[in-house]
Amino acid sequence: MEEIKIFTAGDSSVLIEFGQEISPKINARITALVHLMKAQHIEGVTDMIPAFASLLVNYDPRVISYSMLRERLEKLLKLEVSEEASAARVFEIPVCYGGEYGPDLQNIADHAGLTPQEVIDIHCSKDYLIYMLGFLPGFSYLGGLDERIHTPRLANPRIRIPAGSVGIGGSQTGIYPLDSPGGWQLLGLTPVKTYDPDREVPILFEAGDYIRFVPVTQDQFLEIKEQVERGEYECVIHQKGV
């Protein structure tokens, strides 16, 4: 693994670079450090923002100096922290594919030379690692989309994509957490609110977790949607490897 580097990022942030490649191994190291730092409760650290191959640590310089924080980080980085320390979770996300819920499913199938059902089967066949969150609150950048269903973005982006839409943009797949413009090809819709500002923890998952898409019928979709609106629905969550 490449040498880990620490840089200043303004007067109240530190950037830790773990390398220049996107890989599950590097992401697991970042996630493990985040969990370790949370357990340490380092006074003065106000936020931690993981990305593909780096971690931005925001701190209050009135509480902890840069030199003190850097020393603490260097000590933590020397610890051998196993991937299990990050306790990765797998969230089952129900998705109704095709039709009005996934208007581009046929486009994706045609581009891949597959049937719509084959696209669905491939899309649901693995757990997707959340490398980072960004773009919109709770928008997850997922890794691991099967190359067979890589699909170019739309030539003319939509003005409005409904919250909960599951799409493919090039080599990535993801869930739109809010209504927004976008150019990804839409293959389904989930009734689950991956971002809810009224929830105690607004964003459902975090970087280092996994998403598993589970196909549901339209009737099941509507039933889950009602449960979500009543505040009664809870995603099935597994521990990775269990």
Which secondary structure elements does this structure contain, and how are they paired or packed?
Layout: E1 5-8, E2 13-17, H1 24-40, E3 45-50, E4 54-59, H2 66-78, E5 89-97, H3 105-112, H4 116-123, E6 128-133, E7 140-143, E8 158-161, E9 165-169, E10 172-175, E11 180-182, E12 185-189, E13 210-215, H5 218-229, E14 237-239
Parallel strand pairs: 5-13
Antiparallel strand pairs: 1-2, 2-4, 3-4, 5-12, 5-14, 6-7, 6-13, 8-11, 9-10, 9-12
Features:
4-stranded antiparallel β-sheet, alpha+beta, 242 residues, 29% strand
Structural overview:
- With 242 residues, the protein is an alpha+beta fold.
- 24% of the residues lie in helices and 29% in strands.
- The protein contains five helices and 14 strands.
- It has helices at residues 24-40, 66-78, 105-112, 116-123, 218-229, and strands at 5-8, 13-17, 45-50, 54-59, 89-97, 128-133, 140-143, 158-161, 165-169, 172-175, 180-182, 185-189, 210-215, 237-239.
- Strands 5, 6, 7, 9, 10, 12, 13 and 14 form an eight-stranded mixed β-sheet that branches. It has a four-stranded antiparallel β-sheet with strand order 1-2-4-3, covered by helices on one side. A two-stranded antiparallel ribbon has the order 8-11.
- A hairpin with a 4-residue loop joins strand 1 (5-8) and strand 2 (13-17).
- The model has no long low-confidence stretch (mean pLDDT 90).
Poorly predicted ranges: none
Order of helices and strands: EEHEEHEHHEEEEEEEEHE
Beta-strand content bin: 25-35%
Q: How is the quaternary structure best described? A: single chain
Largest beta-sheet details? 8 strands, mixed
User: On the 0-100 scale, what is the average pLDDT?
Assistant: 90
Tally of separate helices: 5
Derived from helix and strand composition plus strand pairing, the structural class reads: alpha+beta
Q: Which percent bin holds the helix content? A: 10-25%
Overall 3D shape: elongated
Question: Termini distance?
Answer: 27 Å
β-strand number = 14
Q: From the alpha-carbon coordinates, what is the Rg to the nearest angstrom?
A: 19 Å
